[in-house]
Each structure stands twice: as structure tokens, then as C-alpha cells.
Amino acid sequence: MTLRVPRAGGDISLTFQSRHLDKGLEEPIPGDLWVEARALAATLEQAVTVSGNAAATVTPIISLATNASVGELDPELAFESTPGLFERQFFQIFVPGERGLISRGRIVNIDHVRALLAAIEGHPERDRLLRATAQYHQSLKYWRLGHEILATAHLYMGVEALTKAVLRSNFGREQMTDEQLAAGLGLDPNPRDPCRRLSTEIDAAVRSNLIFQGDADCYRSAKAASDGFEHGYMPFDELRDKAKEVRDRTATYLRQAILQLLPIAPDLRDSITDPSRFQPLGDRPLVKYLRGRLTAKSDNLASDKNEYPIMTWRTKITSAQVNDKGEYLLKFEEKITPQLADGVSFQPASVEAWAP
Predict the structure, then answer these.
(1) Which residue has the higher pLDDT, 248 or 29?
(2) 87, 143: one domain
(3) Closest Cα partner for 262 from 118, 154, 153?
(4) CA–CA separation, 240 vs 152, rounded Å?
(5) Residue 233's domain spans which residues?
(6) How far apart are CA 89 and CA 240, in angstroms?
(7) What does the alpha-carbon distance between residue 164 and residue 199 come to, in Å, rounded to a whole number?
(8) Mean pLDDT of the chain
(9) Per-residue pLDDT tens digits for 132-150
């Protein structure tokens, strides 16, 4: 997917594609996301900065379209490409290659991404939509066991960023008094308490009634988890319980609220919100569990080379095929070697693979 990003100093050309790794199988295996940028700049460092910033505005849109995490973009290679020069600047950062660990992913539908980019770019609430989308993008980076607090906190910050946009979308952009807005949201427009802040209650009603679609319990728990984390007034075990309870529902409400504000064709909207993309997807590798029993007549379980009894685990992809839907079907070979003391044996019970 190639995009042109307007810029006063000269447009930036960005090309997004997947690296494909040849492992000697039927099909190459998709690797990391690869972005090529071309920009006019006074220095190489400036070119890297403006190109990186431009690309970083697109990756959250890819996350929103696929409902899947996109990792951080790290600059790796830059060089001057001015035609006709004898000497050119060169810059490289040595970054780790693909980890080689198996993770789930989704095929990026380029039509979806382009439609969302165009809808957001021309929207009067562009800045708030971008901020809410960026928070959704950040939340997916923490979409794994043990990180529910951070995921929920980013989701709620996305809700806060979107609140005024949803308010204006539902009540028009013309100037309305707080009393008129309160009445429209079913609030008492004439509070007797002089300390009551009507604007705060209006924001809360927009979030609870419109963004959270009337799910007041989810709204209150998500707010409590985010505020308790940010301001440090709630124990972490309570925070984690609240975040685990509402993380998934909060993500659904925020993504739906963003998409509802965007003027995109009904068929594209239906495709973007298809059930196959309903469940958010983190970028962590599959977690593999090995369960079993150690049997020994001694309390000494570890080999002489290890502190504890442990298994070495090697995974090899033996087959890779692509089906009609563009999905990769992989087969694996698992080699598990016990590292145990003499006389100790291991009886395996199960090998399990868990998504993040």
C-alpha cells in the first residue's frame, strides 16, 4: 500500500508491505511490517524524523481496520538518494530481526485502511478521531494476560478523547448551552447544588449513554480502573479485577464509536466490523504450556548443568499453505528434551498453545 502524505517541505511517499521469509516451505512465511519512506529533507536525521512521524500516523489506522495490534516502527536504514551525487550520507541502526516465534495475525485489507484514512482526514473531528484511534492502537499492544490495567487505561483515554466529538455529532456543531445539552441527555438542566458542574455531568452522560451504549456498569468500572491507575488511589489487585472485567467490552464500545463517526460506505463498514475481526488481537506470540509429572526416588531433580529441572523446547514449522481466504495454515514439529538428573524421568500429560 503506497500513500502520499502532504508536507510543506515536500510530500512524503510511504509504502507499507509485509516482509516474507523463505523457510524452504510451500509458501513464504509473513514476517514483520516493512515501511519504505521517501522524503525531501535538509539532513538525513530530519528525513528519518519526518518519515517516522508520518508512518506512525498510519499504523493506528491499520490497527483500527484489522482490530489487531501493530508493533512499534523502529528506523533501521536511511541513505541519501539524490540523483547524480558521488558521495551520499548513510545511516543504520542495528535492530533485532524477526523473533521466529509464532504469533497470530490478520491480513490487512488495503481498501479498509484507505477508506478509514480518507474518512478521518476529511472529518471535522479529525484530531480527536486520531487521538482516540492512537489510544486504541496503544491498548492492543498490552492485549495479553497480566497487562489488562494498561490496556483498559488506554481504552478509557480513547473514550475521553472522543467524548466531545460524539457530543457534537449527536447534537450538531452549532453553539448550545449546557442547559440545552443536559436536557437533551436526560439530565436536570437546572441543578440546585451550586457546586455541581453541569459540563462534567454532560461529558459523563455522553460516555455512559452514547459511547458505552447505556452499559453504565461497564462505564463506571472502566473509569474507576483508569482513574485508580492514573491517580494511584486503588490497590493493584482491585485495579486488575476491574480491568479484566471490562477490558473487552470497553474496546468494543470505543471501536464502534470511532467507526460510527466516520462517513464510509455501508458495505465497507459491514466488512470492517465483520465477526472475524470482532475480537481484538494482540501482537504477542502464542504461549505454549507443557504439563506433566516428574518421577524420581531422590529429591535431586536437576542435571549437573542446571539449577532446576527444565526442558529444552524447539519448534520447527514443517508446512505452510495459504487457503482461499488468504489465511496461513501452518504445521509444526515440537521437540522437547528433558534436562534432568540421573534417575529422574518425565511423563508428559499435555502440550497446549494459548493465544495472548
Answers:
(1) 248
(2) no
(3) 118
(4) 10
(5) 125-261
(6) 49
(7) 11
(8) 89
(9) 999 999 999 999 888 899 9
